[in-house]
Amino acid sequence: MEPIISVDVLAQMWDQEEVIILDASPTSNKSGLVAAHPGKKIKGARIFNLKKVFSDLESAYPNMLPQPKLFEEAAQALGINNESMVVVYDNLGIYTAPRVRWMFRVMGFNQIAVLDGGLSAWIDSGHPVEAMEAPNTYYKGNFEAQYKLNLIKSMVQVEDSTKHQAFMILDARSKGRFEGTAPEPRADLPSGSIPGSLNLPFTSVLNNGKMKTKEELRSIFGALPIKDYPLVFSCGSGLTACIVLLAGELVLENEMAVYDGSWTEWAMCKLV
Fold first, then answer.
1. Contact indicator for 46, 138 with CB cutoff of 8 Å
2. Tens digits of per-residue pLDDT, 53-109?
3. Any catalytic annotation for residue 235?
4. In 110-256, which ranges are continuous DSSP H helix?
5. Catalytic residue among 4, 235, 246, 256, which?
6. Strand partners, 253
7. Spatial distance between the Cα atoms of 54 and 65, rounded to a whole number of angstroms
8. Could you report the per-residue pLDDT of 150-209, keeping only the tens digit for each?
9. Which of 118, 211, 213, 251 is the most buried (most CB within 10 A)?
């Protein structure tokens, strides 16, 4: 399954039994984005609660990946099977959906794609939507998590790489936050960057809520001194990092992973 699909492709498959559409729209965000269609979702979409269900609620850091067993049970509760074809979107164009796709891939599930342009693109094309209601109950799926450790990096691994450059770190935050000239949106957290990391703001790979063309993405990544290094993506809390990772998947062959704790963990452990 392609990493990202168009509204036209989804429209041809959205009512097929094996296709499950997940709405991962956030109720708030740290990037100042505003949803054009609050309170609506694609007809038949199932609510993927990233903050309260599919995150490690016991972690000191936001958005951390939950344990495989907890992820498995939550995915089963959404009726997801090992044979399902999943499409995920959000109401901010492309924002939280790439994080969800990466999470499923960490759990060994690859039949998942991000909807290019998200809810707005679906509505603009005249396809059916419905009100965002309370989560439904679905027949329990048979989804089984098969944890892929190579797709996630820890602070210990990142710190080691700052000394030996085992991989290149790409930071998806804004230039100001990366350079320490703009404040972090999280209280009492200093801005700045991981030593040796490169800045590639997530907004630079998007155009009006959609992913830029492959030609444009090749130019963007080609301007960075990444060569054939393995790439590790970071941001404030591991969310927008996945947007840049998705862009990289479309045009690069480098090995790729996400530093899940991202700048929040690094700053709290190293600077605060």
1. yes
2. 999 999 999 999 999 999 999 999 999 999 999 999 999 999 999 999 999 999 999
3. yes
4. 118-124, 155-164, 175-179, 214-222, 241-251
5. 235
6. none
7. 7
8. 999 999 999 999 998 999 999 999 999 999 999 999 888 999 999 999 999 999 999 999
9. 118
